[in-house]
C-alpha cells in the first residue's frame, strides 16, 4: 500500500501588538530577517481593539508578545538567532511526531 505523504510542518506566528509600540516595529523588522531562514506565516492582533480585551488584560505591559502555533514563543525583543533556533526546534518536533 502506498504511503500517504504527511503535510510539511507549518509555523503560524501570532504577534500581539498595538499601534503605539516601537518595540513592535523593531520586532517586525527582526522577524523579517528570521523569515529569511525559517518560513512562517504571521498574524497581528491589536490588543487595544475591544474584541481583543482578553489579550489586552494579559499583555498590556508586555507587547510585543509572539506565539508560535498558539504557544508562547517570546516577548519584548526578537533575538534573530535564538528565534530561528526556537522555530526550527518546533518544526523538528512536528516532524518527529508525524
From TrEMBL:
The keyword Electron transport applies. Keywords: Electron transport, Transport. The keyword Transport applies. It comes from the Eukaryota. Coiled coil: none annotated. Belongs to the glutaredoxin family. This is Glutaredoxin-like protein.
Amino acid at each position: 500500500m502506498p504511503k500517504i505523504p504527511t503535510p510539511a510542518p507549518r509555523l503560524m506566528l501570532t504577534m500581539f501588538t498595538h499601534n503605539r509600540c516601537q518595540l513592535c516595529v523593531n520586532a517586525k523588522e527582526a522577524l523579517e530577517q528570521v523569515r529569511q531562514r525559517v518560513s512562517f506565516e504571521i498574524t497581528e492582533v491589536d490588543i487595544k481593539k475591544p474584541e481583543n480585551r482578553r489579550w489586552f488584560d494579559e499583555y498590556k505591559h508586555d507587547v510585543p508578545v509572539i506565539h508560535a502555533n498558539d504557544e508562547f514563543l517570546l516577548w519584548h525583543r526578537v533575538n534573530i538567532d535564538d528565534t530561528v533556533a526556537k522555530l526550527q526546534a518546533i518544526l523538528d518536533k512536528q516532524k518527529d511526531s508525524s
